[in-house]
Amino acid sequence: MGAIQNKLVEPVSDELALVRAAKQGDDSAFEELVRRYDRNVFRIAQHITQNREDAEDVVQEAFLKAYSNLTKFQEQSKFYTWLVRIAVNEALMKLRRRKPERTVSLDEDIKTEDDSLPREIADWSPNPEQQYTQAELREILSKTIQGLPPGFRTVFVLRDVEGLSTEETAAALELSVPAVKSRLLRARLQLRERLGRYFQKRESGDGTQ
Amino acid sequence: MKCSEFLHELTNYLDGVLDDKTKVELENHLSWCHNCYVVCDTTKKTIEIYRDSQLYELPEDLRSRLRSAIMTKCQQQKKRGPQSV
Q: What secondary structure letter does DSSP report for B2?
């Protein structure tokens, strides 16, 4: 067993050139930035809001905000990290509007047994995802991640789904690196435990063979 | 290494950022502690399943509709002149 492999390294070499052209008023350069990151922003937004219409709104609002504030972008971070920060804030605002009864904050103090081992430790079947159709699997994954507090699933999606580094995630969420690591651990462990309900090895004789 | 120490290092281990000494200690722990081995293995699978799931992909037709809506709004914004949105 070893480290997980990051799946994507986005081309960033010409990103700055596009940003600078867009700052000079070149809308086709900005459109290229939209093309480059719209899928990522949509995924992040839907993970946070858990609502397709809200995610569509977030994509539009985040890019429009980025466009309007482009001259304020200092180029000290990647454009993508800056855009993610805008998108996360927009998504959290949507969530607050939809669920005003709940505090929705990345800073909420979520009490869990931080340093204890997970309670249920049952092994999974080999290739557990293959027990389900693609549609069933997406339903399971979506339902499972919905159960996580927004602050946890935001860190998880940025780090583990989108492949941002710990430092980039911290910058995008305005959190410290230790806070990102702690949330990431808890998010991963909670998802693991919840997915175990679907993926655990079955006892023999239950008809799965 | 104790189980609680393993858990503390799990994220760094899965992210491949552990120093060599701690990595050896952790892998030694995994070689005899079945529970921690299972936690490590299934946590790794959890991450891989989500990463490879193509959950919430943006369909191409919606994608182009959103893009043209964005660009139209940007151009309207430009005509109105600089202001905060």
A: -
Interface confidence, given as ipTM, is: 0.88
* Contacting residues for A95 by C-beta, under 8 A, at least 6 apart: A48, A49, A54, A104, A150
Q: Is A31 on the interface with B (CB under 8 A)?
A: yes
Distance of CA A171 to the CA centre of its chain: 14
Rounded to two decimals, the pTM is 0.85
DSSP-derived secondary structure for A187-209: HHHHHHHHHHHHHBPPPTTSS--
Give the rounded distance of the alpha carbon of B61 from its chain centre.
Answer: 27
Q: Structure tokens of B33? A: 């502690």
> Which residues in B lie closer than 8 A to residue A60 (C-beta atoms)?
66, 69-70, 73
| CA–CA separation, A41 and B62 (whole Å) | 14
Is A54 a residue whose pLDDT tops 70?
yes
